[in-house]
From TrEMBL:
<feature type="transmembrane region" description="Helical">
    <location>
        <begin position="7"/>
        <end position="28"/>
    </location>
</feature>
<keyword id="KW-1133">Transmembrane helix</keyword>
<comment type="similarity">
    <text>Belongs to the CD36 family.</text>
</comment>
<dbReference type="Pfam" id="PF01130">
    <property type="entry name" value="CD36"/>
</dbReference>
<dbReference type="GO" id="GO:0016020">
    <property type="term" value="C:membrane"/>
</dbReference>
<keyword id="KW-0472">Membrane</keyword>
<keyword id="KW-0812">Transmembrane</keyword>
<dbReference type="InterPro" id="IPR002159">
    <property type="entry name" value="CD36_fam"/>
</dbReference>
<protein>
    <submittedName>
        <fullName>Uncharacterized protein</fullName>
    </submittedName>
</protein>
<dbReference type="InterPro" id="IPR005429">
    <property type="entry name" value="LimpII"/>
</dbReference>
<keyword id="KW-0325">Glycoprotein</keyword>
Length: 408
């Protein structure tokens, strides 16, 4: 079974509702020849229409960029949500208008270029520094939300493009990501063992990654988060491959919940997932190069972002070291708004509700030859976070309830 994943990181319900009946048939026909593959094919039509998936983008608007560059503490204020449905840049519910709202944030293309320049000659650095000054371009930029999200033509990248044509002239956090973009997944069908149902066999042709520094960290574990094996236990850890984080993560049971009359177990990533390697040595493999480790609650993903100094975390550095939260004024991590969780029906393994939250940050540091960066001292600067929510639609919920009522 090959299909494309549906969301920003290991998304929820989008591709899964066909399974309710698929699994029903499997449990009914245990021991006979009917397999999930065949059952799924019969119910292919369940795929349309998908349940609603909303993506809310929140940005950290920097209110004192000049003070920060002069050595002060940065102050951010959260703006948003800018809400989109699925991936299409089609806004539906919006507080504020992404087309006109101005956002001051890190000039990500410039910082990406600068971080590369550290390994180049002083001559080239000086040239770039002068060029940036001539364009009045600094470490921060003010753009509309629309531009930052869906792309704009960046003057520095345009200049690089004229020298190296493979460099894209455009920059945007979701640039060219209006479709599916997580790569090609091949999943196991669970024909031999239902516990393998939906497990990722390969991702972009790979059965494991190679960028992390231990074999354990490189493993592609579990599903893409949209399907799980039936008959879930409260004691098990569920693994999902989180493409945003470029790694597998695990979720543990939190509590029993009920969504639209359907019983569910809530699973969420425990604290140890992003724990620092000093506290949790099994995470040492996520330090690249080996030994170059950050603290708890943040994950450097340069290895899979073309070397850019990008760091992923939960929103507002939820569950992260105090030092990251306190480095910037205006952050207020809390469980309700910032935790990622999945509510799964334990009988079928089907996600009933999902809430996935991830924050994008960038490392700001001194660059030799750039006076503007002289007061920077390795700070993990928050840019934005995504809150991706999906809940089973009413008609699927009704079918699920009647299915659970009939058979159990
Ligand atoms: C972001 O902050 C700037 C000032 O720093 C302000 O002019 C702008 O209106 C803010 N944007 C939003 C959407 O509040
Ligand atoms: C954003 O900035 C532009 C140009 O500086 C200005 O024309 C526009 O009115 C600003 N938008 C808001 C909502 O303040
Ligand atoms: C993404 O947007 C581009 C241009 O806006 C369009 O050509 C392309 O078809 C879109 N892709 C998807 C999958 O919607
Ligand atoms: C990782 O796995 C490869 C083979 O799959 C093996 O050669 C290598 O020694 C392993 N590395 C570590 C650190 O265990
Ligand atoms: C993958 O799963 C194995 C156990 O099956 C575990 O030891 C390993 O830490 C997991 N790796 C990741 C990155 O989750």
């Amino acid at each position: 079974m090959t299909r494309r994943s549906c969301a920003i990181y290991a998304t929820g319900i989008v591709c899964t509702h066909l399974l309710i009946v698929g699994i029903a048939l499997v449990s009914y026909n245990q021991g006979t020849e009917l397999t999930l593959t065949e059952a799924s094919r019969v119910f292919e039509s369940w795929k349309n229409p998908p349940p609603p998936v909303y993506m809310e983008f929140y940005f950290f608007n920097v209110t004192n960029p000049d003070e920060f560059l002069a050595g002060g503490k940065a102050v951010v204020s959260q703006i948003g949500p800018y809400t989109y449905r699925e991936y299409r840049p089609r806004k539906i519910v919006v507080q504020g208008d992404p087309m006109v709202d101005n956002l001051t944030t890190v000039n990500i293309p410039a910082v990406m270029v600068l971080s590369k320049l550290n390994s180049y000659s002083f001559f080239l650095r000086t040239f770039v520094s002068m060029y940036m000054n001539s364009l009045k371009m600094g470490i921060f930029m003010t753009r509309t939300v629309q531009e930052v999200l869906w792309g704009f033509k960046d003057p520095l990248l345009t200049k690089l493009h004229s020298i190296k044509p493979e460099v894209d002239e455009h920059f945007g956090l979701m640039w060219k990501k209006n479709g599916t973009h997580e790569g090609e997944f091949v999943f196991l069908t669970g024909e031999q063992n239902y516990m393998d149902y939906g497990r990722i066999d390969t991702w972009n042709g790979l059965s494991q990654m190679s960028w992390w520094s231990s074999n354990q960290s490189n493993m592609i574990n579990g599903t893409d988060g949209s399907v799980f094996h039936p008959l879930l236990s409260r004691k098990e850890l569920l693994y999902i491959f989180a493409a945003d984080f470029c790694r597998s993560i695990h979720l543990g049971y939190v509590e029993d919940v009920e969504v639209k009359g359907i019983p569910a177990y809530r699973f969420a990533p425990p604290y140890d997932v992003l724990q620092s390697s000093t506290e949790n040595p099994t995470n040492a493999g996520f330090c690249v190069p080996a030994g170059d480790c950050l603290g708890t609650g943040v994950l450097k993903v340069s290895v899979c972002r073309g070397g850019a100094p990008i760091v992923m975390s939960f929103p507002h550095f939820y569950q992260a070291d105090k030092k990251y939260i306190n480095a910037v004024k205006g952050l207020n991590p809390n469980k309700d708004e910032h935790e990622t969780y999945l509510d799964l029906n334990p009988t079928t393994g089907v996600p009933i509700r999902s809430c996935k939250r991830a924050q994008l940050n960038i490392i700001l540091n001194k660059v030799q030859g750039f006076p503007k960066t002289k007061h920077l001292n390795e700070i993990i600067f928050p840019i934005m976070y995504v809150n991706e929510m999906a809940t089973i639609d009413d008609s699927s919920a009704a079918q699920m309830r009647s299915f659970l009522g009939i058979w159990f």
